Structure to design on (497 residues):
């Protein structure tokens, strides 16, 4: 399996090279040159494996320069029972009206990013060895909340790596901020910025393509890499949990093998739902991919307005901050796939996005996309209503991002009459967003409690996850705040880690 850039497919690289470097020199995203197929033999084997085994088998389809033994070892370490609260790494909880909640938040940071970022350190360090790289990998991460902590947790004190995380100072929940600024490890740095996630993500991408910065790091024995979903090594592990969910639904009798499902994902940067789409291209039987957005509904408009992507709009800070994004990087990969790997087209569209802040996908490409996707959005009030209704009617407690997906799915079902069983990606523990969940349930916030964990537990009887409860009393290590225009200069901090 070879990989090419979405903006120049003339140069092919290995999976290890793509993972080690994170982003292509032209600013494009690495993609596989084909989609492997899941055979009947694969499905039979997957059905009888645990999550670790399923993950290794799916990754083996894409990472052909890694051995099966290597991937099995990495999966055993990444998804160790003690990290994910038991053997059921990504359980499916079936509710009423065709809702099947794929809980992706049982890992060490209580968000779905753990599913990839516990695996990525193993893939990245192995990729450095396989490519003969001797420089220290400096991992730059822009986060809207969850990726930052998950990346810090995965890479802290990993030999041969340094990691720097940028987050919007007013754009994450109190719990997300506390998780990041208290992170342990000698090779980590956390920087808040005056700006939003898009500002941080755009700045990080500029750093990757800044030749002067790359040359300076090279002289100091360092190289750049990424833990955002622009890195194929971050995206690939996410494919496995959709395949795993289907296997679990077949085993439980929720669907029959070969029967189609829908997949609904709360979406900001488009990586999580793109992983589902790739699983579909491999043979996962999917009827519709339902893209759920909050008030920052740039993706909803793309799907509803004939492929017009326009980031020239107001940016909103919402109760689902991990989705507060207007530049959805992984949509570039979908355009590449849907255009039959047309790198010139994708390059032109991305130039228009940079220059004008908008573009329109060609009609033929959008028709291909529209055949597979539906979309919707909801605001904070609707998300709060959904949290309360789920709790009162089904005694299921969910976070704000999951609530967005549930509401969009329910609207989709009412609008279309589609009764297809639907997997809804539950992307974070409700305890990561205590304040919003408590308010949605009609509870009263404590004035001085940053995390509000005890308040939510008393209100619902649901215990807080141990990793979050362990934050009590921890002192912040990082308090640096910079303007978005100063992000490039902060790369200097990597030398001192």
């Amino acid at each position: 399996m070879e990989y090419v850039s979405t903006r120049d497919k003339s140069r092919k690289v290995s999976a290890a090279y793509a993972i080690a470097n994170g982003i292509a020199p032209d600013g494009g995203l690495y993609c596989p040159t084909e989609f492997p197929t899941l055979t009947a033999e694969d499905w039979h084997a997957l059905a009888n494996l645990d999550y670790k085994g399923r993950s290794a088998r799916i990754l083996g389809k894409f990472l052909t320069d890694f051995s099966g033994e290597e991937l099995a070892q990495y999966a055993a370490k990444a998804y160790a029972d003690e990290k994910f609260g038991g053997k059921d790494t990504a359980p499916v909880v079936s509710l009423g009206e065709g809702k099947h909640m794929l809980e992706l938040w049982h890992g060490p940071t209580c968000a779905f990013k753990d599913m990839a970022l516990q695996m990525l350190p193993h893939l990245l360090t192995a990729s450095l060895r396989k490519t003969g790289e001797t420089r220290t990998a400096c991992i730059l991460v822009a986060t809207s909340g969850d990726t930052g902590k998950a990346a810090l947790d995965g890479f802290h004190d990993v030999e041969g790596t340094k990691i720097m995380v940028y987050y919007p100072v007013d754009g994450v929940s109190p719990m997300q901020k506390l998780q990041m600024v208290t992170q342990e490890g000698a090779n980590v740095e956390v920087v808040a910025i005056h700006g939003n996630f898009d500002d941080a993500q755009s700045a990080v991408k500029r750093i990757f393509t800044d030749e002067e910065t790359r040359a300076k790091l090279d002289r100091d024995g360092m190289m750049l890499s990424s833990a955002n979903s622009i890195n194929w090594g971050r995206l690939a592990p996410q494919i496995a949990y959709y395949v795993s969910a289907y296997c679990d639904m077949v085993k439980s009798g929720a669907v029959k093998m070969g029967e189609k499902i829908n997949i609904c994902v709360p979406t900001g940067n488009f990586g999580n739902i793109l992983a589902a789409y790739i699983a579909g291209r491999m043979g996962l039987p999917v009827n519709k991919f339902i893209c759920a957005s909050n008030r920052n509904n740039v993706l909803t408009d793309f799907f509803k307005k004939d492929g017009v992507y326009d980031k020239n709009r107001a940016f909103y800070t919402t109760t689902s901050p991990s989705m507060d994004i207007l530049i959805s990087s992984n949509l570039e990969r979908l355009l590449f796939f849907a255009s039959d790997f047309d790198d010139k087209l994708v390059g032109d569209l991305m130039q228009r996005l940079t220059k004008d802040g908008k573009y329109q996908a060609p009609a033929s490409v959008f028709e291909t996309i529209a055949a597979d996707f539906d979309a919707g959005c909801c605001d904070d009030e609707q998300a709060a209503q959904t949290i309360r209704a789920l709790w009162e009617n089904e005694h299921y407690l969910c976070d704000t991002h999951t609530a967005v997906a549930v509401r969009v799915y329910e609207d989709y079902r009412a609008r279309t009459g589609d009764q297809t069983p639907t997997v809804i990606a539950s992307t974070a523990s409700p305890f990561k967003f205590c304040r919003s969940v408590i308010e949605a349930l009609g509870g009263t916030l404590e004035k001085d409690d940053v995390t509000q964990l005890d308040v939510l537990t008393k209100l619902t009887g649901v215990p807080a996850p141990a990793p979050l409860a362990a934050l009590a009393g921890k002192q912040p290590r990082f308090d640096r705040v910079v303007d978005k225009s100063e992000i490039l200069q902060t790369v200097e901090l990597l030398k001192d880690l």
